[in-house]
Specification:
The protein is of the alpha+beta class. The chain folds into two domains: about 80 residues, Creatine Amidinohydrolase, Chain A, domain 1; about 220 residues, Creatinase/methionine aminopeptidase superfamily (Creatine Amidinohydrolase, Alpha-Beta Complex), CATH 3.90.230. It has seven helices and 17 strands. It has a four-stranded mixed sheet with strand order 5-6-9-17. It has a three-stranded antiparallel sheet with strand order 12-15-16, covered by helices on one side. A hairpin with a 2-residue loop joins β7 and β8. The protein is globular, with a radius of gyration of 22 Å. The mean pLDDT is about 95.
Length: about 325
């Protein structure tokens, strides 16, 4: 997708994907290319020439652009200076309008409904992969777009102590904590939620750390409002966990921005002095991870309002028993 001063937006894409541009609400000139690599170069050269970008400065989004596409841009605009424009593009998406928030709210609803439909299917002896597959099916049944923000993270027992574990063949056992981190996509916007469950009866210490994380989540949610630094949201959640003696086991930032992508600005990090503004959306997801044992994370999606902060998610945060 290319924006140039004084020109209609343009898109350079494979012919096979041309139908995706039909029915858009804004003008978009397409430059399709076929399977021959020579066609790729021609499409980029033609588009960048007609957009008057030869010899100009062109900003790209490095985290989203493949090296192949970068080379085609560099080769397709003689004399152009290609720079990273990640921050400029991120700033355009920082504040969501009412329509965007409504789409995110629907993505949250889809995710919550899908999880509630999945929970009765959980049984001791079910593998993490089986559970992840069932949740994926329910997300699609409840209205998520097929291109979800990420594959569901389903991790039980010692795997739950890994914040970014992948579902494995490990079977759920009585006494496990079960972390489920999942999200849905709706009309280009996403949700990202996490809840932790008890598989049958669990050790008293695990219930204790769940309660601590629940309190940290509440503190982080309460801290957000216009004018508050992202670092203060992180501090609010982290202080609860540190005061309980588990600070060393909270190994990641408290949250990240969400919207069109699963991770974007702003980041709830201890060194981030960026101030929250109305319309910003982000997660609050404190956790405690005991290596080789069990872990807990509770994550909600937040939107900054004129006077405070609203949680788009309202699933129970208390520990629930499954299996």
């Amino acid at each position: 997708l290319v924006y140039a001063p004084g020109k209609d937006p343009a898109i350079i894409l494979p012919e096979l994907e041309l139908q995706k541009t039909a029915g858009l609400a804004y003008p978009l000139k397409a430059y399709p290319y076929g399977e021959n690599p020579a066609d790729w170069s021609l499409a980029f050269r033609t588009a960048l020439f007609e957009l008057d970008l030869y010899g100009r400065t062109i900003g790209v989004e490095p985290r989203r652009m493949r090296v192949l596409e970068l080379r085609l841009v560099e080769g397709g605009a003689p004399g152009a200076h290609v720079i990273a424009a990640e921050q400029e593009l991120a700033s355009l998406r920082l504040r969501k309008d009412a329509e965007e928030i409504a789409k995110m709210r629907q993505a949250v609803k889809i995710a919550q409904d899908a999880l509630e439909a999945t929970l009765p299917q959980i049984k001791i002896g079910m593998s993490e992969k089986e559970l992840a597959a069932e949740l994926t099916v329910q997300l699609l049944r409840h209205g998520s777009e097929p291109e979800m923000p990420f594959a569901p993270i389903v991790s039980g027992g010692l795997n739950s102590a890994n914040p970014h574990a992948s579902p494995s063949e490990r079977k759920l056992q009585a006494g496990d904590l079960l972390v489920i981190d999942w999200g849905a996509a709706y009309d280009g916007y996403i949700s990202d939620l996490t809840r932790t469950f008890a598989v049958g009866e669990v050790d008293a210490e695990y219930r204790k750390i769940h309660e601590i994380v629940q309190q940290a989540n509440a503190a982080g949610r309460a801290a957000g409002k216009p004018g508050v630094a992202c670092a203060e949201v992180d501090k609010a959640a982290r202080t609860v966990i540190e005061a309980a003696g588990y600070g060393v086991y909270f190994t990641h930032r408290t949250g990240h921005g969400i919207g069109m992508e699963g991770h974007e600005e702003p980041y709830m990090r201890g060194d981030n002095q960026q101030l929250l503004e109305s319309g910003m959306a982000y997660t609050v997801e404190p956790g405690i991870y005991l290596p080789g044992r069990n872990g807990v994370r509770i994550e909600d999606d937040m939107v900054v309002t004129e006077n405070g902060c609203e949680s788009l998610s309202d699933l129970p945060r208390e520990i629930r028993v499954v299996g």
